[in-house]
Specification:
With about 130 residues, the chain is an all-alpha fold. The protein contains five helices and no strands.
Length: about 130
């Protein structure tokens, strides 16, 4: 819940969210954020083993979901205009695994994982639908 955590999350939300909103519109973007927020928070709440589980917060799970969506949608549907450069992918995945080491303190790892998996699945399904309808 620190200032840097909030700033980093909002920067990532702005960068990736702006891209999704430009391509899909505000309504679909807000739907994605809402679905990812519910699923990632449910994952963290359901799977986290500590008694203070209700104290987690942030947009990291949602951001990992949006990242996963843009990464996979752009990879399998280049015409989608969604793209994340290779360096950003490497950094996001490295950060994902670094968080699992516990060196950075308590992290909502289940929210991150759920967001990444849901976002990647959403991106892949969306890409398959788009490519088949062309």
């Amino acid at each position: 819940f620190g200032v840097m955590h909030i700033v980093f999350n909002m920067m990532w939300l702005f960068q990736i969210g702006s891209m999704i909103e430009a391509v899909h519109g505000s309504g679909r973007f807000l739907l994605m954020v809402a679905v990812l927020a519910v699923l990632t928070n449910l994952a963290e709440y359901s799977l986290h083993s500590h008694f203070w589980v209700w104290k987690f917060g942030g947009m990291s799970g949602v951001n990992y979901g949006l990242f996963g969506y843009v990464w996979i949608r752009g990879k399998f549907d280049p015409a989608s205009l969604l793209h994340i450069d290779k360096t950003s992918v490497i950094m996001a995945i490295a950060w994902f695994f670094l968080c699992y080491t516990s060196l950075l303190g308590p992290i909502a790892n289940y929210a991150h994982a759920a967001g990444l998996v849901v976002g990647m699945a959403w991106g892949w399904i969306s890409a398959q639908i788009a490519v088949r309808s062309e």
